[in-house]
Amino acid sequence: NTPLEKEDQEVFNIIENEKLREWSGLELIASENLTSQAVIEANGSPLTNKYSEGLPGARYYGGNEFIDELELLCRKRALAAFNLNPEQWGVNVQPYSGSTANFAALTALIQPQDRLMGLDLPSGGHLTHGYQTNKKKISSSSIYFQSMPYQVDQTTGLIDYQRLEENAALFRPKLLICGASAYPAEWDYARMRKIADQHGAYLMCDMAHISGLIAGEQALSPFDFCDVVTTTTHKTLRGPRAGLIFFRRDKNDDLENRVNMAVFPSCQGGPHNNTIAAIAVALKQAASPEFKAYAKQVRANAKKLGEVLVGHGYKLATGGTVNHLVLWDLKPQKLTGSKVERICDMVHITINKNSIAGDKSAVTPGGVRLGSSALTSRSFKEEDMVKVGDLLHRAVQIALKVQEQCGSKMMKDFVAALDGNQEIAQLKKEV
Ligand code: PLP
Q1: Which of 294-308, 332-346, 352-366, 389-403 has the lowest mean pLDDT?
Q2: Residue 206 catalytic?
Q3: Distance 243 CA to ligand 1 centre (A)
Q4: What's the pLDDT score for residue 360?
Q5: At what positions is N6-(pyridoxal phosphate)lysine found (predicted)?
Q6: Atom 9 (ligand 1): residue with closest C-alpha?
């Protein structure tokens, strides 16, 4: 019996159930991964006990000699994992998450009410890149800054750089953000840099989704072109839930001090040292040859999954993928992403509904997002992804049948009609 099992059976059971769910179902959420036992051990360590506001060598609390050592080690590994020269780049490893890393980066780079441009959420961007709707400013990045999002081309699904350049000429942003949560194509960082330079703007990349692929040399590196690069550490990078902010060292621009001050004291309090230890472990792994092989397999698996779906006659945004994620357009089937997500949930295939270029509403998106990172961590190869693609096809066939039988497009009628469906029970067994 572990101490937790003895002390708190309820929480222990919940954790055991979640472990089973993660390892026995098919986890296809593109923003998730399955970390190593070593990362989990560091994350669950007594380092959670320690307060260490400040930076190594300059803390507001005593007793930080080991925490200083840890934070310096984590920084060193972060730079090494992305092949960065410590004379040209620095990094802050304290952000609690990707969202706080992004808000701290904005706080460091621009002033309140300054103008920024990021990829629109319905185009695959993240909330924290300035998301707002026609009616409402949603994210603090659009509440405290003026945002004019740019979009993907509605037919190709690719970023419309020409239109971005034209709109930037009107809006004159102080900050341009590249990076996305649901974009299966490569970025043209050089073009983004050129547009930023036309307005003397900073260029920031939020590489959260693809940072593992960049560390594994399976995606272009944004570091050659950007001033600041943020990332989460728990997606393709396969670490604990947290964020990092990399900043370019520049004699004429004290980004280091501004980023560090923005993280603490502007946006956060004491660092989560257990998390920083777990990030350090993940970054050591990410610099290994095994991780390069992993990143390569992640891409190969996503590509294969896309091909299988296309083989079944489906449409993918941008026609395929060059990274870990597939954006599956279900509009030609006249299905919403929510319905397919619902059936998949019932059979232990975990996916998420996602908007696709051309969707009328972000609330009822016309597609789903699939990612290969977690299954690749479970050693899935291309031949396994063929089976996964076939199972997904079956789920869609069931959804189509149920939709037709229930004679209504409403979600509540659809859900009611799923009750006792034998095909779903059969599919669940096969998964
Ligand atoms: N940036 C991108 C591109 C993301 O996709 C996400 C989350 O999915 C975040 C930032 C936010 O990260 P977190 O959930 O850790 O705040």
Answers
A1: 352-366
A2: yes
A3: 9
A4: 73
A5: 235
A6: 98
Q: Measure 4 CA to ligand 1 centroid, in angstroms.
A: 30
- pLDDT of 275 > 90? The answer is yes
**Ligand 1 site, CB within 6 A:** 31, 97-99, 102, 126, 128, 179-181, 206, 208-209, 232, 241
pLDDT single digits (tens) 68-106: 999 999 999 999 999 999 999 999 999 999 999 999 999
Interface predicted TM-score (ipTM): 0.99
Does 364 score more than 90 pLDDT? Answer: no
Residue that is written with structure tokens 């050089």 in the block = 190
Nearest-angstrom CA–CA distance, 233 and 240: 6
Cα separations (Å) of 278 from 230, 241, 281, 282?
Answer: 18, 9, 5, 6
Q: What is the pLDDT of residue 1?
A: 87
What is the structure's pLDDT at 333? 94
Residue-wise pLDDT for 142-199, tens only, equals 999 999 999 999 999 999 999 999 999 999 999 999 999 999 999 999 999 999 999 9
Question: Catalytic residue among 128, 231, 232, 318, which?
Answer: 232
Residues for the chain: how many in total? 431
Identify which of 128, 233, 241, 355 to mutate to test ligand 1's pocket (most ligand atoms within 8 A of the CB): 128
Query: What pLDDT digit, counting tens, does each position of 398-417 carry?
Result: 999 999 888 777 889 889 89
Contacts of 65 (CB under 8 A, 6+ apart): none
